Structures are given as C-alpha cells and as structure tokens.
UniProtKB/TrEMBL annotation:
Lineage: Bacteria, Pseudomonadati, Pseudomonadota, Gammaproteobacteria, Oceanospirillales
Transmembrane segments: none
Species in which this protein is naturally found: Halomonas rhizosphaerae
Entry-linked Pfam families: Ldh_2 (PF02615)
Protein name: Ldh family oxidoreductase
Record-linked SUPFAM superfamilies: L-sulfolactate dehydrogenase-like
Length: 255
C-alpha cells in the first residue's frame, strides 16, 4: 500500500509513544523511520526487524558515558536500538567537532544501526561533514559506511564484503561516528583494498527516491502497517484507561 510521508510519520510517532517513548523521543524516532523510507532505504522494514527488541527494552536505561575528552567520546548504548540511544550521542559529537574541528564518537552495544542515518542527516544539514561506520556480524562479513557532506542532507551509502576475515575479528555491535567541520569525509577505496562492494547508493539516487516518494507516496508492507497501527492503538487504550481511573479516583474522594 502507498501512504503519504505525513501519514507514515504520524503513525510511527503514535506507535513509539505506545511502546513507551517520551514525546520528543517518539517524534525523533518517527522522523528517522520516515526519512529512511522516503529515501528508498527501507526504514519501516528495518524498524520491523528490531521491533521485538524495542518492546522488551527498559525505557529507563539510558546510554552511559564511558569516557570522553575534547575530541573523543565512548558510550554504552545499553543494548538498545539507536532510536533510543543515539540522539544525545550525535549531539555530543557535533558539539565537540564544532569546538575542536574534528570529533570521534563510539557507541557500543546498540542495534538498528541503519536507522541512524536520519539523525546524521540533520547534523549534515547544520553544516557538518559526517561519516558513520559499522560492521555487521553476518556471512559474508560486511562493513557499511555512510557519508554526508556538510550542507547535504542526503548521504552516500556503501556496503562492502570483507573477503578475508581477520583472525582477530570479534563481534561488533557498535557504531563509530567521525565528524569534521571543514574536511569532507566521504569514503573512497581503490581496487587494492581487500573488499567487495556489495551496494552503493549515491546522493543522486537517494534524492530521486525522495522526490518520487513525496510525489506518489511511500510504499509500506500491509502487515507492517497493521503492526504499527496496533502499537499506536495501545497508547489510545492506555490513555483512556488512565483517564477513567483518574475520574474514578476523583469520584471516590468526593464520597
């Protein structure tokens, strides 16, 4: 089925509120999913893959700062989706890069890492060059690089397959962000690197996807749409029950 950008954004926001996100976090997370879907990067599918994890997460467990200095910050994402753990981390990296010219932020123990792109798009739109890197624990072993030019809200995305997995390879459930005020950081690898390019999405391709989506609507799988509606309905039910409970308590007080 096809829906408008605003419909998708609105339903996702209600669904995240139903899961237990704070109002501002729910709006941010909805923006990230809708942004990816609008650019042909399968945001709803990525959300659906991690939805069961989101439903089990403790909303009170916030990202924990492990170490920082003027240029570097290392955070523990507490095993949460980037939709819960990434917003403050990206803002921290942005502030450091503005002050020092360059910053590196490493977020450990996080998942749904694809969905970070929308957050980074915002920062790039504010004039920051950004590259995000992460390794996916799958066969074949893949590495993904996402690069934004300052002032460009649309990234270049590359996914590589590592031909020869190093012996010291360890599971990697984190993400590394590099931000630079005045230096472009888009990846450029020559043929001598021991990697195979599996996917390449240049800025022009993603821009064309966005223009088409805004014109003709965004395609969303019916099953996933129904699941989001169920989660959105949860907040309506809970708010109604809370309202009734409040009314009942008031009547009891007046007896």
């Amino acid at each position: 089925m096809n829906v408008s950008y605003n419909e998708l954004q609105g339903l996702c926001r209600k669904a995240f509120s139903g899961i237990g996100f704070e109002e501002g976090d729910a709006a941010d997370a909805a923006d990230m999913v809708a942004w990816m879907q609008c650019h042909g990067l399968h945001g709803v599918e990525q959300l659906n893959r991690g939805l069961d994890y989101l439903l089990e997460e403790d909303p009170e467990a916030r990202p924990r700062l492990i170490y920082q200095d003027g240029d570097l910050a290392v955070l523990d994402g507490q095993g949460h989706s980037v939709l819960r753990s990434i917003s403050l981390a990206t803002e921290l990296g942005f502030a450091k890069a503005r002050a020092r010219g360059l910053s590196v932020v490493k977020i450990r123990r996080c998942h749904n890492r694809q969905l970070i792109m929308g957050y980074l798009s915002r920062l790039a739109g504010r004039g920051m060059n950004i590259t995000a890197f992460w390794r996916n624990a799958q066969v074949p072993l893949t590495e993904q690089v996402v690069g934004f030019r300052a002032g460009h809200a649309i990234p270049e995305v590359r996914v590589y397959s590592v031909r020869d997995v190093p012996e010291e390879n360890e599971p990697n459930d984190g993400i590394t962000l590099v931000m630079a005020n005045h230096v472009e950081l888009l990846p450029s690898l020559g043929a001598d690197h021991d990697l195979d390019l599996l996917a390449h999405h240049p800025e022009s391709e993603l821009l064309a996807c966005r223009q088409l989506a805004l014109k003709e609507g965004i395609e969303v799988d019916d099953t996933i749409w129904a699941r989001l509606k169920t989660l959105a309905h949860r907040i309506l039910v809970e708010s109604t029950e809370a309202s009734r409970g409040g009314a009942g308590a008031g009547d009891h007080d007046n007896d």
